[in-house]
Task: inverse folding
């Protein structure tokens, strides 16, 4: 194996990065620590790679053997804007927002892109019977029609146990998917871990030409009980293998908190499917982006000084999706010629005196470009602002303003949900009413109406309705998809 | 700490929106934010160093909190005074209604005149004062012209606003 890739490093890794990567990899693959089949071999590769890269002379000699293409500059640009040009010199806490625009400068989709392997993990519990399963069937057939003949598809179904319905098959050979799909017998409960685990097993066994772009689509309409932690672990593992999970929740009985978290750990997204059109739209979009990802496994590592906290992280482009507020933040994938936008909220807890520049965070954005000989790339993003004595009068950049205007609605909704869950009806209804008035003023009648219906329910001691809760949550998120006034 | 002009909640300096009620706490340039709902709001945070409107604007226009809006009800001799906030909702209070308008027009026979429970909002910005119809049943007219729901419509002194059939004359102090 190529030495940089063995340690998950970019070509221009610093000695510190090499050392850190070695410790991470050694810990991960150490014979005492692990049980994966490949781990023994990987452990040896890691040792060999570190041996070469940690020594300047050996590293230089090794670099000369690599193709010139590895030295080409990154094709991704990161632009940062802040809500304010300066930080205020103060012992009191203050907030500052940073907007990261991560743009892929390469427009034309590379021809040598590997084919895609789409694994669909389908809930066949009894509640899927009828309309839901019908709509999934017809959409899977649509998906098959639109995939490239060289792509591969596999289907796993699960209830309280999982089975492979369609083993990995090249699309050109998948002749009669209809009969297979109609053979699905709904029944049993929903145990998502069963399905996910078998999905990964399918990926693992179908190593063949290993450089497939792997896509995992989980389709469920129910709650899973007791196996959430196992699912999260699997999602982490899947992210480290470059597979992001798209989680589709049908109807309104599913657990949105769980699917959101599962998707965000893996760098994917969760989608609320209310009807046939929602699903068709997702499939359409998925097809278009199946092999247009320039980079995947994009993550941001943040090193924060003691007086600074990351208090919120949200992806505002290409979709509105909450991100895990931690380091590293999983950012998902980046399409050719497109942008990913992330807004970060930092709380600054008083500044140590006598500084002229306030460091907010040392950031690194790391991603994998499958078409490159050394796939890992890394960009440094340092977030810092000059410190001034007084507040400077200035205008907030429009993009940040608009993002926060939408995010503030999403947060109001989150607040109300938490309060309702804790039985605090008074505050939950108050926040829902505020949300409804903001939505009305913006012209989002329908959402405002949903919020008001929930206010009624809460006042009648009925609690949040599952449907209303999801309408409002995913509705406020989808506000980010509306055209921005900039373009 | 800064205080939300709408719900009086305290926010950390640097916050852009109130976490309690979603009200905007800063100004943006109208030129770069043509969306109706992002029009210039001057929220009176200037004394805390947060007034982000450009200087010339400040010279021309009084602070939002000092602006007094007078609505003279045409069929009676009564007047309403709106003071101290950047946004006012108008409507009538009925039983079991979740969002209450800030100004209840029931005493002016609002029901008979066809005023909706949440009929319209008046927004006070640095450069202009505007009215938004909040999707009312009988609509809002300015000088006899029906305005489109959910779009801000600028007001000038002497304009006649009709919520359903309830008519007001609009006046605002300019300095």
Result:
């Amino acid at each position: 194996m190529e030495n940089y890739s063995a340690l998950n490093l970019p070509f221009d890794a610093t000695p510190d990065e090499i050392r850190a990567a070695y410790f991470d990899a050694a810990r991960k693959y150490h014979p005492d620590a692990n049980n994966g089949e490949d781990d023994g071999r990987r452990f040896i590769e890691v040792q060999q790679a570190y041996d070469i890269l940690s020594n300047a002379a050996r590293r230089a000699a090794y670099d000369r053997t690599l193709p010139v293409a590895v030295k080409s500059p990154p094709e991704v640009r990161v632009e940062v804007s802040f809500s304010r040009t300066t930080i205020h010199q103060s012992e009191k806490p203050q907030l500052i927002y940073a907007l990261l625009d991560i743009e892929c400068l390469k427009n034309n989709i590379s021809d040598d892109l590997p084919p895609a392997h789409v694994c669909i993990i389908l809930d066949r519990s009894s509640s899927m019977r009828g309309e839901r399963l019908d709509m999934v069937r017809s959409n899977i057939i649509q998906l098959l029609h639109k995939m490239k003949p060289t792509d591969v598809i596999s289907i796993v179904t699960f209830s309280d146990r999982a089975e492979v319905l369609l083993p990995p098959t090249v699309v050109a050979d998948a002749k009669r998917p209809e009969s297979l799909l109609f053979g699905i017998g709904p029944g049993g409960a929903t145990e998502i871990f069963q399905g996910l685990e078998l999905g990964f097993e399918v990926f693992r066994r179908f190593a063949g030409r290993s450089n497939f772009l792997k896509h995992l689509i989980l389709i469920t309409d129910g709650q899973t009980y007791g196996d959430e932690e196992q699912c999260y672990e699997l999602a982490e593992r899947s992210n480290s293998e470059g597979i992001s999970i798209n989680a589709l929740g049908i109807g309104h009985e599913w657990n949105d908190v769980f699917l959101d978290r599962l998707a965000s750990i893996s760098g994917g997204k969760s989608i609320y499917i209310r009807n046939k059109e929602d699903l068709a739209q997702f499939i359409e979009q998925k097809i278009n982006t199946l092999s247009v990802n320039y980079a995947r496994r994009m993550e941001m590592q943040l090193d924060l000084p003691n007086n600074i906290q990351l208090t919120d992280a949200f992806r505002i482009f290409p979709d509105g999706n909450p991100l895990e507020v931690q380091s590293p933040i999983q950012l998902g994938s980046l399409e050719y010629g497109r942008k990913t936008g992330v807004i970060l909220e930092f709380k600054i807890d008083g500044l140590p005196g006598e500084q002229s520049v306030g460091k907010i965070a040392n950031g690194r954005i790391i991603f994998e470009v499958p078409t490159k000989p050394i796939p890992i790339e890394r960009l440094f993003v340092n977030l810092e602002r000059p410190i001034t004595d007084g507040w400077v009068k200035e205008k907030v950049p429009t993009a940040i303003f608009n993002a926060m205007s939408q995010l503030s609605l999403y947060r109001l909704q989150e607040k109300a949900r938490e309060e309702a869950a804790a039985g605090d009806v008074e505050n939950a209804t108050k926040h829902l009413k505020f949300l409804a008035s903001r939505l009305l003023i913006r012209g989002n009648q329908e959402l405002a109406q949903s919020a008001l219906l929930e206010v009624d329910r809460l006042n009648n001691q009925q609690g949040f309705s599952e449907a209303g809760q999801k309408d409002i949550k995913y509705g406020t998120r989808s506000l980010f998809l509306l055209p921005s006034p900039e373009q | 700490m800064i205080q939300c002009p709408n719900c009086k909640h305290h926010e950390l300096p640097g916050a852009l929106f109130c976490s309690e009620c979603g009200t905007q706490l800063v100004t943006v340039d109208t030129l770069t934010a043509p969306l109706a709902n992002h029009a210039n709001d001057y929220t009176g945070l200037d004394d805390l160093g947060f007034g982000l409107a450009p200087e010339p604007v400040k010279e021309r226009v009084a602070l939002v909190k000092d602006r007094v809006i007078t609505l003279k009800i045409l069929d009676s001799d009564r007047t309403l005074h709106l003071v101290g906030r950047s946004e006012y909702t108008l409507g009538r209070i009925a039983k079991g209604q979740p969002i209450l308008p800030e100004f209840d027009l029931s005493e002016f026979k609002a029901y008979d005149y066809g005023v909706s429970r949440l009929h319209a909002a008046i927004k006070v910005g640095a450069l202009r004062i505007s009215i938004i119809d909040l999707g009312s049943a009988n609509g809002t007219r300015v000088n006899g012209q029906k305005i489109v729901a959910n779009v801000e419509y600028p007001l000038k002194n002497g304009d006649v606003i009709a919520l359903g059939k309830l008519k007001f004359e609009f006046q605002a102090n300019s300095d």
